């Protein structure tokens, strides 16, 4: 890194301090203020645009800040390359300036206070390529590090590409108060909330009260679903909760899926065979054998009662964060199909009726995949929580 000595230049002062400069403050020349460049260094070229909301009356300067080179409002919609930076001491305050030059109009060049610069938004084609180059339905680190305006500009596109539901539950300052109306499931709810809080590195879900909450967790009789979230109420099926044998039928492994498919094929063959025929009797025997094997495999792979219901709540809280279903068994947000017939169908990247990772076992514990976490982080960027 090349260093330069202290250079005393012109006399100049600023209207505000470095720590709290008003957005539209413009430097003015006054006497008896000592200005010096205390450090300069080159930097790899980085692209910026002028933040016109902050730089309405500001200028770019010469390297000594002695001369105004151009008014920053002239750089509207221009992209600039920044290739060097310098620290300038004005009186007792120090500010950092970048040397920038327009990529399309080289007459627009000079030293600009870094607070007037912003990272330019990616073009639609660049965003499309970035999404396509990443893992399916998993926002990359680059997508999660874009400027705030990016997520407003590409909200609908990102929502579609990453199977997001949009805003479902109301959050205040990125936080939702959760009231658990049924005391019996409170331990499960606390575990599920903690899983998301830890994964996101912040307290997103906090305990609420009957009079102060954004989301209520309760139970409700149902045979069609285990969990349901409408944005203000999250329900667990009391019917399934009361059935202690329910865990014996929920496991989903490659072996179980294979046995189930074989059983279905034999059942169809049995129906098509002539009544009383030898073939029908053979299919019946094979069907009984496969059924017994299927039941045994489901029991062997059954999750614990506690883990399962905590996992269901983690899934449903994911919907509150703006996540829709995925076709990946290893995601807590997995669903067997993109349209199950009773909940809202997924308006996402594509439809499915089979898992994308058929050689994996379904996640049925209160844990998250990296895809789950990254999509939730994207949900925050998009303003869903």
From TrEMBL:
TM region positions: none
Region Disordered, residue ranges: 342-366
Entries under InterPro entries matching the protein: MetalloPept_cat_dom_sf, Pept_M10_metallopeptidase
Protein's name according to its UniProt entry: Peptidase M10 metallopeptidase domain-containing protein
One cellular-component annotation, GO: extracellular matrix
GO biological process: proteolysis
Comp. bias (Basic and acidic residues): 354-365
UniProtKB keywords: Hydrolase, Metal-binding, Protease, Signal, Zinc
SUPFAM superfamilies in the record: Metalloproteases ('zincins'), catalytic domain (SSF55486)
Record flagged with keyword Transport: no
UniProt-listed Pfam families: Peptidase_M10 (PF00413)
A GO term for molecular function: zinc ion binding
Signal peptide: 1-19
Domain Peptidase M10 metallopeptidase: 255-336
């Amino acid at each position: 890194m090349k260093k330069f000595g202290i250079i005393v230049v012109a006399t100049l002062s600023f209207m505000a301090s470095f720590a709290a400069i008003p957005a539209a403050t413009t430097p003015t020349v006054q006497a008896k203020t000592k200005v010096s460049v205390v450090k300069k260094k080159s930097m790899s070229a980085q692209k910026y645009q002028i933040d016109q909301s902050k730089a309405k009356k500001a200028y770019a300067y010469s390297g000594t800040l002695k001369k105004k080179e151009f008014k920053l409002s002239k750089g509207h919609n221009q992209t600039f390359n920044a290739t060097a930076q310098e620290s300038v001491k004005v009186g007792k305050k120090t500010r950092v300036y970048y040397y920038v030059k327009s990529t399309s109009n080289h007459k627009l060049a000079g030293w600009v206070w870094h607070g007037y610069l912003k990272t330019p938004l990616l073009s639609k084609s660049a965003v499309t390529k970035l999404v396509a180059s990443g893992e399916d339905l998993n926002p990359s680190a680059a997508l999660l590090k874009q400027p705030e305006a990016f997520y407003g500009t590409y909200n609908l596109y990102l929502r579609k590409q990453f199977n997001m539901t949009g805003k479902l539950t109301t959050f205040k300052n990125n936080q939702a108060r959760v009231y658990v109306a049924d005391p019996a499931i409170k331990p499960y709810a606390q575990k599920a909330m903690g899983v998301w809080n830890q994964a996101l590195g912040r307290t997103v879900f906090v305990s609420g009260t009957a009079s102060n909450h954004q989301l209520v967790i309760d139970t409700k009789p149902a045979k069609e679903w285990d969990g349901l979230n409408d944005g203000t109420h999250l329900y667990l099926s009391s019917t399934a909760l009361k059935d202690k044998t329910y865990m014996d039928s929920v496991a989903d492994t490659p072996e179980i899926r294979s046995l189930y498919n074989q059983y279905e094929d034999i059942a169809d063959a049995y129906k098509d065979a002539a009544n009383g025929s030898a073939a029908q009797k053979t299919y019946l025997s094979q069907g009984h054998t496969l059924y017994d094997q299927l039941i045994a495999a489901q029991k062997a792979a059954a999750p614990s009662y506690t883990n399962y219901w905590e996992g269901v709540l983690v899934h449903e809280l994911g919907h509150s964060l703006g996540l829709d279903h995925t076709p990946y068994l290893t995601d807590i947000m997995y669903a067997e199909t993109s349209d199950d017939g009773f909940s809202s169908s997924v308006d996402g990247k594509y439809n499915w009726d089979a898992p994308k990772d058929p050689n994996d076992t379904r996640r049925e514990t209160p844990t998250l995949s990296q895809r789950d976490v990254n999509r939730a982080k994207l949900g925050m960027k998009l303003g869903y929580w």
